[in-house]
Amino acid sequence: MSALLDSFATIPALEWIAVGLGLAYLFLAVRQNPWCWACAIASAAIYLVLFARGGLVMQAALQLFYVGMAVYGWRAWRGDGAGAALRVSRWSAGRHVVGLGLVLVATLVNGWLLARAAGGWVPYLDAFVAWASVLATW
Prior knowledge:
The protein is an all-alpha fold. About 80% of the residues lie in helices and about 0% in strands. The protein has six helices and no strands.
């Protein structure tokens, strides 16, 4: 237990701020408060810096995507003034299979490109997490 607590003590303050902003985003989104998007943008911007410093190229790029999606979300939340609710839809099983296939192809291509520059297996994991996150956000 002591080792677990010690590991939390070594996390940089900037990372704790990003985590706090991410949790604030969730809390505010559940409460349908549009300030959730400001928290999402700030959290993703901090993570962008942290991942770039850590050499996780695709995770840093993913944070750019998240900033863009948060800007889109903030604008969409304001709506067109007509008060129409946004439509919620579900994907069919076939669409999920296609999406997962695209994630795997993107992972292999992107991972191969990153591995050529950096080497090792981490580029493939980095690419997989990034592309799967893009699909999940979409």
